[in-house]
Design brief:
This protein is mainly α. It has one domain. It is built from 9 helices and no strands. The protein is globular and about 70 Å long.
Length: about 250
């Protein structure tokens, strides 16, 4: 079981995020539903992280996970702002001011993990889930500006997971591919630019290009898994045929 020292950093960072949410809501008098949404994200994400730490019997949290947990705290505040935006206007400058470091730190946690030799499966999964949820909430905000089609960016990762529940072969282990990180970065940049309103004429084009790259990336993974499944089926069929060939007269 993970020690108290290992569990303390994620709890402390989640508490810091909760404090930030409370301060922002007190200053701007934003809709309470956004505050509740932010706290719900922080509580649920921290609980899932602690569960993963206990299962993995971690002996230390690691600086890379500290960076990711900091990003997660920022994502919690962003979630609250986006939920509030469905009820009344929010300070967009604050949203972008939080989204930019949350996106930029995505390049930091992996670098820290490699430099400190602390790469773990849990850390990689934590990083991926924070990325996915950040894209989901940003796409939900931009969808209010460009249309519901933008939600495809945020929902695609979760659609892939659901497909894996129905089709077990889609839960196969994918080989590392740097292009995925590039595509994820493009999604974040395109969504943040569209949310800022700085280039309204280019926002739709940029988000559409980002979505096309995401479809290509997920499509390539699905094709790889399908081909691997077919190759595995052929191997199993061949293995099953060999004993009959040996026993034949």
């Amino acid at each position: 079981m993970a020690s108290d020292e290992v569990q303390l950093p994620p709890v402390a960072l989640a508490a810091l995020g909760a404090g930030g949410v409370t301060a922002i809501w007190a200053a701007d008098a934003l809709p309470a539903v956004g505050w509740w949404a932010a706290l719900t994200y922080l509580v649920v994400s921290t609980a899932l992280l602690l569960r993963g730490l206990r299962r993995g019997q971690a002996v230390r949290f690691g600086w890379a996970n500290v960076v990711t947990a900091t990003r997660s705290a920022l994502v919690g505040i962003i979630t609250g702002l986006v939920v509030a935006s469905f009820i009344e206007p929010i300070p967009v400058g604050l949203l972008i001011g939080l989204a930019v470091p949350a996106l930029a730190l995505d390049a930091v946690d992996g670098w820290v993990a490699r430099r400190t030799d602390s790469i773990t499966e849990l850390g990689a999964r934590f990083d991926m889930e924070v990325d996915a949820f950040l894209l989901l909430v940003l796409s939900a905000f931009v969808a209010q500006l460009l249309g519901p089609w933008v939600l495809a960016i945020g929902l695609m990762r979760y659609a892939f997971v659901v497909a894996g529940w129905v089709l077990p072969w889609m839960r196969g282990h994918l080989p590392p591919r740097y292009w995925r990180k590039v595509v994820t970065a493009v999604q974040g940049i395109a969504l943040a630019l569209a949310a800022s309103g700085l280039a309204p004429m280019l926002a739709g084009v940029g988000v559409a290009i980002a979505l096309a790259l995401l479809v290509e990336s997920f499509g390539r993974d699905v094709i790889w898994l399908a081909l691997r499944r077919r190759g595995t089926a052929r191997t199993l069929a061949g293995d099953g045929a060999r004993p009959a060939e040996v026993d034949a007269p």
